[in-house]
Specification:
This protein has 463 residues and is α/β, with parallel strands linked by helices. It has helices at 2-15, 39-58, 69-74, 76-81, 97-107, 152-156, 164-176, 201-210, 230-238, 255-260, 267-280, 299-312, 339-363, 433-445, 457-462, and strands at residues 29-34, 63-68, 87-89, 111-113, 134-138, 140-141, 160-161, 181-185, 217-221, 245-247, 285-292, 316-321, 368-380, 385-390, 396-400, 409-417, 422-430. The strands form five sheets. It has a five-stranded mixed barrel. A four-stranded parallel beta sheet has the order 1-2-3-4, with helices on both faces. β8, α8 and β9 (217-221) form a beta-alpha-beta unit. The two termini are 27 Å apart. Bound molecules: iron/sulfur cluster (SF4).
Length: 463
């Protein structure tokens, strides 16, 4: 969600006359689009801001803006801690950024503007997409759930669904521009339709998007197990473009902890959904998010999580140590888990998932998959070029090929595997309009400028 918002921020700035700073040049503006889901992200912001403070002294026109969930949460305190920040803007008004920068320049004063609710559905804002062949499309923003560990509803507000005609229009326009892969985005995608009182709206949307000619791959994230319905599974199985991949957050394998998290499904229901998905799509890859060390989690509860990981055979799990977010109910729950216990559980869970992922990838050696090439893996010379790509079930493959461009689809036989990726040889390459769109983008902006907009800490330190 934040990555897509960053694409909108880039689009707004380009529309306002800004140009992307090329690698090696010093920018006149740095925008931080922050996340508040974990405490670590909070701490990182102030570290990053302090790297930039000296630049203000050398260049009085240099501006810094902070947006996103942390800005929404901390509002005035950002300016108190870092008075050299020019603009603080919230999650509901990213469209105001160019005007706020202008005002800060004219009035020579920091501008803080946070709105408590959404002004326009963000998709009406211009977008500068990171990829020419793969795009995010928002179908809803906000969330009506109240998971006790989560700060998102407080910062992003209640769910707001976007009319399906607008979604379809955006997807059609993107496909016309050469996009071959679409990921439908929402905090809880299968609640989509709640605003219009339309049950089954998400399954219908999958089918409708799937009919758009030229779309090769359709994905979505993230569903909530509570709202997952059989018709979504049927729509996935029957829609050719819908990829056999489901990313469905588990969070805990213990019913007691799920209840304390206010996640209103139980382990049997979760496993039941997976079983139904595999019945309809035997090759489906399932990925998940898991939190360890939620307040009150006992060794027995944790064992239940390990047990579900063994049963579910996730291709990957994004595992997190519980992070206390002030303002959420879980932050004041008794029996907060000690750091060393949490770290130990995290290590054990990670080790088990690595074994599971390793076994699944090992089983794929000798098999062939259609791989959408995404980018260069790093090794790139006249003789040999190694590219990254994704299988239909979203596993990462390194492919040796001199012919495939990002956006093309290669038929790849897997030769080696590890828990986190596989290696394969391309038997054939299907050039797609996605590859053409990528080539056109490189010609237009140069390959390095495509990355601008996602600065790394190393880049900031080098400024
Ligand atoms: S479903 Fe729960 S975890 Fe996900 S955004 Fe909503 S409240 Fe947060």
């Amino acid at each position: 969600m934040n990555v897509h918002d960053s694409e909108r921020i880039a689009g707004l700035l380009l529309d306002a006359g800004y140009a992307a700073a090329l690698e090696g040049s010093t920018p006149d503006l740095v925008v931080f689009n922050t996340c508040a889901v974990r405490e670590n992200a909070d701490n990182k912001l102030y570290g990053n801001l302090s790297f930039l403070a000296p630049l203000k002294k050398n260049n009085p026109n240099f501006q810094i803006a902070v947006g996103g969930c942390m800005a929404q949460k901390d509002q005035d305190s950002i300016i108190k801690r870092a008075p050299y920040v020019d603009v603080v803007f919230g999650t509901h008004n990213i469209g105001s950024l160019p005007a706020l920068l202008e005002r800060a320049r004219i009035e020579e004063e920091s501008q803080v503007e946070i709105k408590e609710s959404l002004e326009h559905f963000p998709s009406t804002l211009p977008v500068r997409r990171h990829s020419a062949f793969s795009a995010w499309v928002s179908i809803s923003v906000g969330c009506n759930n109240t998971c006790t560990f989560c700060i998102v509803p407080a910062l992003r507000g209640v769910e707001k669904d976007r009319p399906s005609v607008d979604i379809l229009k955006e997807v059609r326009a993107l496909v016309e521009q050469g996009v071959v892969e679409i990921t439908l985005l929402g905090q809880n995608v299968n609640a989509y339709g709640v605003n219009f009182g339309e049950r089954g709206a998400f399954a219908k949307l999958i089918r409708e998007v799937g009919t758009i000619d030229g779309l090769e791959r359709l994905r979505f994230m993230s569903p909530h197990p509570r709202d997952f319905t059989q018709d979504v599974i049927e729509a996935m199985a029957e829609t050719k473009a819908a990829m056999p991949h489901l990313h469905m957050p588990l969070q805990s394998g213990s019913d007691r902890i799920l209840q304390a998290m206010r996640r209103s499904y139980r382990r049997d229901r979760y496993l039941g959904i997976i079983e139904d998905v595999r019945k309809a799509m035997p090759d489906a890859g399932i990925t998940t998010d898991i939190i360890v060390g939620f307040p009150g989690e006992t060794e027995e509860d944790f064992e239940q999580t390990l047990d579900i990981v063994r049963q579910a055979r996730f291709t990957a799990a994004y595992t997190f140590q519980y992070s206390k977010r002030p303002g959420t109910p879980a932050a004041t729950m008794p029996d907060q888990i000690a750091d060393d216990v949490m770290a130990d559980r995290y290590t054990r869970l990670h080790k088990l998932q690595q074994e599971m992922s390793g076994a699944i990838n090992r089983d794929s050696v000798g098999k062939s998959f259609e791989v959408l090439i995404t980018d260069h893996e790093g090794r790139h010379d006249a003789q040999r070029s190694r590219m990254n790509g994704r299988t239909p079930d979203f596993r990462l493959v390194h492919v040796d090929t001199n012919e495939a461009r990002p956006g093309d689809i290669a038929e790849v036989t897997i030769t080696e595997s590890s828990p986190n990726f596989m290696v394969g040889t391309a038997n054939s390459i299907r050039k797609t309009r996605g590859g053409d769109a990528h080539d056109a983008r490189v010609k237009e902006v140069g390959s390095t400028a495509i990355m601008v907009g996602m600065p790394t800490l190393a880049k900031l330190k080098s400024l």
